[in-house]
């Protein structure tokens, strides 16, 4: 990493030297232009001096370019701050690809500290250090949601939800500390509270479902008890009815046959009911009964019952 950062620091130093040199050459033409603006020098005296200053400036620029070409045959090494940041991005690209695949970078905090020290520790440039730290911080923030999702998926269906929330929080803090650069102000509190909210929300849902199941079981039990009570009452009522029917040992019955007629009247009283029966009986004389088969049916050999 320090070998990759050295060309950028050399390029920045040489660019600063060339700027100071050009600034010294530009001082004379700027003074002449200022004098001409306020009328201190005539235009006829100003033109030769401007031409001389312009020629000297071009020669100095060509000399600097030639010296730079001899010092380093690769012009891309003399990069600006943007070029240096591009070099930093290309160096951390493998770590970004690992995060893009949904994987955490092991010991990312220590690696970030070494990376920052290699690129900006020796130069002492605070602005450069902040720029590199910002890129590493962005990669740190991208790993926190991955860590939160992994722990949430692991502890979401735990047998003991309350203990699972505390254990998941401890593991998140331990893993996030390994991702955090030592001595930095990087914070993981937002994702930590988000993890607790997810697990506690699942715990509340499980408690609500448990209460609903308990209420449903109680309702079913109450329904079963009501149905059982009704069945018991119906069985008791049936037993009482059967006892009333079988517990009446007496009834009244009488019959009367009208003389010289086939009519017979029978009356019966039982369990609060009265029954009247009118019957038309056959003739009791066997001779007439047999003759009925020859002479046909008549009132004397035909039986009829009428119940009221």
Structural description of this entry:
With 308 residues, the chain is of the alpha+beta class. The chain has three domains: 2-77; 106-204, no CATH class; 252-307, no CATH class. The protein is 70% helix and 8% strand. The chain is built from eight helices and four strands. A hairpin with a 2-residue loop joins β2 and β3. It is rod-shaped and about 145 Å long. The termini are far apart.
Q: From the alpha-carbon coordinates, what is the Rg to the nearest angstrom?
A: 57 Å
Strand line-up in the sheet with most strands: 1-2-3-4
- Intertermini distance: 120 Å
> How many domain units?
3
Q: If you average the pLDDT, what whole number results? A: 70
Instruction: Give, in order, the helices and strands.
Output: HHHHHHHEEEHE
What can be said about the biggest beta sheet? 4 strands, antiparallel
Strand fraction: 5-15%
Count of individual beta strands: 4
Overall morphology: rod-shaped
Structural class: alpha+beta
Helices, by number, come to 8
Q: Any low-confidence stretches, pLDDT <50, length ≥5?
A: 1-13, 15-79, 292-296
Sum up the structure in keywords.
3 domains, 308 residues, alpha+beta, disordered N terminus, 8 helices, 4-stranded antiparallel β-sheet
SSE blueprint:
Elements: H1 2-38, H2 43-71, H3 81-100, H4 108-121, H5 126-155, H6 161-179, H7 189-246, E1 252-257, E2 263-270, E3 273-280, H8 286-295, E4 304-307
What's the gist of this structure?
By secondary structure, the protein is α+β, with helices and mostly antiparallel strands.
